[in-house]
Amino acid sequence: MAVVFQRTAGLTDAETHYCPGCTHGIVHRLVGEVLVELGVLDRAIAVIPVGCATLAYDYFNCDVQQAAHGRAPAVATGIRRVLPDRVVFAYQGDGDLASIGTAEIVHAAHRSENITVIFINNAIYGMTGGQMAPTTLVGQKTTTSPLGRDPRLAGEPIRIAEMLAQIPGASFVERVACDSPPHVKAAKRVIRRAFETQLAGEGFALVEVLSTCPTNWGLEPVDALAWVRDHMIPYYPLGNLRDPKKDAAARGGVRPEE
Amino acid sequence: MARVLMKGNEAVGAAAIAAGCRHYFGYPITPQSELLEYMSVHLPKVGGVFLQSESEVAAINMCYGAAGAGARVMTGSSSPGIALMQEGISYLAGAELPSVIVNIVRGGPGLGGIQPAQSDYHQSTRGGGDGDYKLLVYAPSTVQEMAELVALAFDKADEYRNPVMIVGDGMLGQIMEPVEIVERPPDPALPPKTWATTGTRDHPGSRSIINSLFLKPEVLEHHILDLFAKYERMREREVLVEEYRVEDADLVVVAYGTTARIVKSAIAALAAEGVRVGLIRPITLFPFPAESLRRLPDRVANLLVVEMSMGQMIDDVRIANEGRRTVHFLGRTGGMIPLPQVIADTVRHILAEHHAGDVPHVSVGDEKGGR
Q1: Pair (B246, B331) in one structural domain
Q2: Looking at the domain assignment, is residue A7 inside a domain?
Q3: Which among B137, B319, B334, B171 has a CA at the least distance from the CA of B259?
Q4: Is residue B95 part of a domain?
Q5: Cβ of residue A107 closer than 8 Å to a chain B Cβ
Q6: Domain hosting residue A52, numbered range
Q7: Does residue B321 lie in a domain region?
């Protein structure tokens, strides 16, 4: 009998603690598969955040450092500067990266640290029980925006991929989603590109993954996928914002002497 | 290497490189920036990495990553910057990562001032981060001693898998003194860092995990008990102290860092008058040299603590003293420095007026006499 699908060696066989319908598990799998397919699992070091993915040190089947809240890019920088021939990636949520850790992610991008960052945007604080995140949509109800996010009080949701794409050192930036099989397949290709960017020594790479939080959104898993499609993607458009290949092609089109 | 004239901050950098430190992450702050500048020049020359971080918060977390990857790593700052690092220091202690952290202390609270102070004793020995943990804390009093303690700190950090702090007041960072920097490669007796996250190909069949999270309380309690067993070993083995003229002393002063040097000037002046005063100078602030206080001769009825603070080390002196002797205090703070003649006057006053059990003499600021 042909094996058509099996658990990737990039993940341990631990049972995850993620809620039903949460897409963390999918993104973990994609990262694990990419590490295996690129043949770098045994020289990969994961830096994991504070948030729902804190326990990912039990899941990624490689060496792992658990970082303080928001500091994963700084910790990854420390590892990268000691071990330049390893593969270093940070896995962060939106409270971790887009709120408390903005300084660290902006400056890691500015230095073009040769690391890969997987950024999970599910528009809410999951682990602490559904508080408003910087990425919470306008009008979205959370435990700290019970009447819906009011932009006059809390500002507009932060578009991290677009913000970081302004930084010269941000070599690869792309936003993907996990709401459908085609999008998941596309997300894997993009995650692979983000690791290839690192392997080529081309600098900072970030993939923003639009994800679900059915538990804190108060939705069934299937409805949560539809919510990503209907509400998140319109505000957080999918697509590539920076790619060293694309940028090189663009640069090649203009000859300095002209 | 011959003796050369160096600023304290630069000697710290030279000693660290001589001890095999190849990674430095830091952020500018007065009066410590010369260390940052020195490392930016000299680390690349030996194939090392210097990185100016975006903040002290980032610097200490870069140390965490680098230490977890197995490197000899250092950062440095001054008081308000160390306060920003306290979160990361707590994580280093919790995850048992070796790092050397240099604090060239200035006056606080808040932005405070930029002149020398010793008001970070609590921040150094009590932690400023969350949770039950200790640092090994060295308090040099000369540039030469600071260089030697920096070298020792790297070995001790590795031996105990614990952050080690060097506490020097601003004076020690800025002063220029002759210093000999000795090459001191890592102690060959230190075990290999098999726990470092260098990729599983270096340790097939097992994963290295650097972590300070223990969600089950019984597991966290066990972890903390293990940490404290380690701190107990430090108490047994790592105490460093200078005992100066205590054998025949009528009064003993307790002071550390450059304050202790000023006290020695006062002791010399008093000796010329026939007044016998000793000095206990803690070189480790944790572990505190409590035994040196406990075994003082019975004739010593009075202890005088002199600090460039409102009195922080005095807490450890009182704990070690266990009420046996009267503990007096003389402090200058906010960047002011106690003068030898004021220390001598205070000693004369105590010996003339006070006997064991009396109300302690306390002098702070520029007033003379009690508060």
Answers
A1: yes
A2: no
A3: B171
A4: yes
A5: yes
A6: 24-249
A7: yes
Instruction: For residue A148, give how far its alpha carbon lies from the nearest alpha carbon of chain B (Å).
Output: 32
Amino acid, single-letter form, for residue A258: E
Q: Does the distance separating the beta carbons of B73 and A78 come in below 8 Å? A: yes
A17 in contact with B, Cβ within 8 Å: no
Domain boundary among B222, B237, B252: B237
The residue length of chain B stands at 371
Q: Looking at residue B249, which CATH number applies to its domain? A: 3.40.50.920
State how far the Cα of A82 lies from the Cα of B185, in Å rounded to an integer.
18
Examine the domain organization and report whether B233 and B248 are in the same domain. Answer: no
Residues of A in contact with B95 (CB under 8 A): 66
Instruction: Give chain B's domain count.
Output: 2
Scan for tokens 């420095």, then name that residue: B337
* B 90-149 residues inside an 8 A Cβ radius of A: 91, 95
CATH code of the domain in which B115 resides: 3.40.50.970
End-to-end CA distance of chain A: 62
Q: In terms of domains, do B258 and B221 share one?
A: no
A43 chain-B contacts, CB cut-off 8 A: 199-201
- In the block, which residue shows the tokens 């200078």? B242
pLDDT in tens, chain B (371 residues): 689 999 999 999 999 999 999 999 999 999 999 999 999 999 999 999 999 999 999 999 999 999 999 999 999 999 999 999 999 999 999 999 999 999 999 999 999 999 999 999 999 999 789 999 999 999 999 999 999 999 999 999 999 999 999 999 999 999 999 999 999 999 999 999 999 999 999 999 999 999 999 999 999 999 999 999 999 999 999 999 999 999 999 999 999 999 999 999 999 999 999 999 999 999 999 999 999 999 999 999 999 999 999 999 999 999 999 999 999 999 999 999 999 999 999 999 999 986 555 678 888 887 544 33
User: Range of B12's domain?
Assistant: 4-237
For the question of whether the overall pTM of this predicted structure is more than 0.80, the answer is yes
User: Which ipTM value was assigned to this complex?
Assistant: 0.95
**CB pair distance less than 8 Å for A63 and B200:** yes
| DSSP-assigned letters across all residues of B71-108 | --EEEEE-HHHHHHHHHHHHHHHHHT--EEEEEEEB--
